[in-house]
Amino acid sequence: MITKNTLESEIQEATSVRDSMQKELETLLNEVYSLEGIQQEKEELCQRLQFQCEESERNVVRQLNENKKSKELVEQYACEIQELKLKQRKQRMIFENQLYQLIDQHKKLNSVFTQERLPDEMASAENIKSQLSSVEELKLVQLHDLAKALEEMKNHNQSVPAETREDETCMLPGCFKE
Length: 178
Prior knowledge:
With 178 residues, this protein is mainly α. The chain has helices spanning 4-112, 118-159, 162-165. Among the domains are: 10-85; 116-153. The longest helix is centred in the first third of the chain and has 109 residues, at 4-112.
């Protein structure tokens, strides 16, 4: 039979096991609470990290868009610079051509108006001047003769009646009968 001592010892043992189990349960509960707190902190941290990650992704997308726009602007500016360079090169070439033409004209003028050729040029100019003067005198004489002939015709037409004037021929040079 079971004695009181055995029962007490079994009860003590059971109480001891129960106390140790109670302590272990409390330890495990404390550990559960602690782990739940850690889990909650980790979840919050995870949410913050996800938010930061999403924010970083938005920043990366924004940066990429800005970089793309910047590259496009740089390309546009490069094209504009290239166009300006080509325009300036074209203007410079036109200027150089004009300069070469002026240099050639200067060389030609320099060769025409040299000290050695000056007496010949002066003689030629005097010869042309005398020819023009003689032609002018001849034309003046012809003009004076025409003025006299016209005056004579006017005087003659005033003295002759109107019916006879129609039958008369023109006496001026260059007039022809019809």
